[in-house]
Amino acid sequence: MTLGYSLTSCDKDNPIPPEPETADTLAAPVLESANISDSSFTVKWKAIGGAEEYIYLFSGEENTIKETFIDFKGLEADTEYSVSVKAVSTAEGVTDSEWSEIIVKTLESTNKEPEPDPDPDPEPEPDPEGLTFTIEDEVITCTSISFTFVPSDQTADYSYILTDTETIEPYEGNLEEIVYALIGYSGGADILRGTESIIFETNIRPGQQYSLMLFGYDGQEITSDVFRHDVETPEGEINENITFEMYANVLDSYSIFVEIYPSDNQAYYFFNLITVEEYEYYKEDLAQYIRDVCAEVGISIDTYMKHFASVGPEYDTFDHLTPNTEYILFAVGCEPLDNDVRFFTPQLYNGDLVTPSDSSGTSR
To answer: How many Å apart are CA 364 and CA 358, to the nearest integer?
Structure first.
């Protein structure tokens, strides 16, 4: 299983630790594995209060990161790997956490070499121009899509792109044009060979149409017709009693990082970071905030909620904020309606979120 990437209209940034908590010794991260394939996996953990960054040990090398996850790629199939992580801080009187270790084993290869034929026939030459594809083991949830790609020629190089269907609709008569554009936008495309299983978990949203495109690819040119396969994710659920675990960290004068963990990973909710003044104005009817934003920018509430209603955990960095300003982080269960939205009981982040003054004298 390989972790796939998708190109959609909304991106989320990488996690960074939340605000410090008073502690003499930092808590050790609780490590979990995810997205395990035959050549890659992810190790993740919840942010540790008071941690400024994390040190991890892998294959005898130490590295430092601020995120709360690590992606490992280019690994051997069916092999055990050890990853150790500890939380660190430069604050006076605060001691680094103990090391936490996790052992992760990659999956067996989905493209094993066949047993040698004692009297083999000459191998056929690859025919990239005649390359076709079938899709197997399709699994679709509100926030993930997985496929197994089976090319007609197991020796041919090929690649893939998943994007929201509305992006490619203007190019239905010329998919090559949009494929080249998306490859350029993403800085390249993975090259696969043989049967591969892919799971897409980034920027997949409920109730949306997505288009998978598969095509022969030599690293520079498309070498076959573009195969297109459309799917639609199911709608999220409505849960009036959803609650949230929230973390936040003021990064600098202009940005705050937040993490949201809902109690129900299938239910719709909305979260945002607004000034105290905005919250005081809208707190009796937070849905009116959405209505006013949509009216100001000239989009429908349906379009807004399509892109910003959430399902499952979310990580986001709010930037372009105002220095020396107090903000409120809230999350609230919601029900998308016909060009409107109904909010349930909101929950506020329990902590102060104040951006410091900009000592550099610059502005953004």
So the answer is: 10
Cα three-residue angle 308-314-315, rounded to 5 degrees: 110
Domains in the chain, CATH or no CATH each: 2-105 (2.60.40.10), 128-232 (2.60.40.10), 244-354 (2.60.40)
The C-alpha atoms of residue 160 and residue 227 are separated, in whole angstroms, by 9
The 10s digit of each residue's pLDDT in 325-348 is: 999 999 999 998 888 899 999 999
Nearest to 67 by CA among 90, 91, 51, 82: 51
Angle subtended by helix axes 301-308 and 287-297, to nearest 10:
110
Could you give the residue ranges of the DSSP H alpha helices within 53-210? 165-168, 175-186
Q: Which candidate, 268, 207, 213, places its Cα nearest to that of 233? A: 207
CB 4 within 8 Å of CB 198: yes
Specify the pairing of strand 244-252 against strand 269-275. unpaired
Residue 297 corresponds to which tokens in the numbers above?
């920018």
Q: How far apart are CA 97 and CA 346, in angstroms?
A: 34
Task: Decide if pLDDT at 14 tops 50.
Answer: no
Q: Which two tokens stand for residue 121?
A: 């026939």
Sequence-distant (≥ 6) Cβ neighbours of residue 221 within 8 angstroms = none
Distance CA 33, CA 222 (A): 35
**Distance from C-alpha of 318 to C-alpha of 250, rounded to nearest angstrom:** 10
Q: How many residues does the chain have?
A: 364
Return the number of other C-beta atoms located less than 10 Å from residue 121's C-beta: 6
* Burial of 162 per CB tally in 10 Å (0-12, 13-18, 19+): buried
CA distance 247 to 49: 9
- What is the distance of C-alpha 179 from the center of its chain? 21
**Look-up of token digits 């949306």:** 208
Q: What are phi and psi of 326, to 5 degrees?
A: -95, 135
pTM, to two decimals = 0.56
Note the pLDDT of residue 360.
61
Q: For residue 74, how many other CB atoms are within 10 A of its CB? A: 6
- Give the CB-side neighbour count of residue 303, counting CA atoms within 13 A: 9
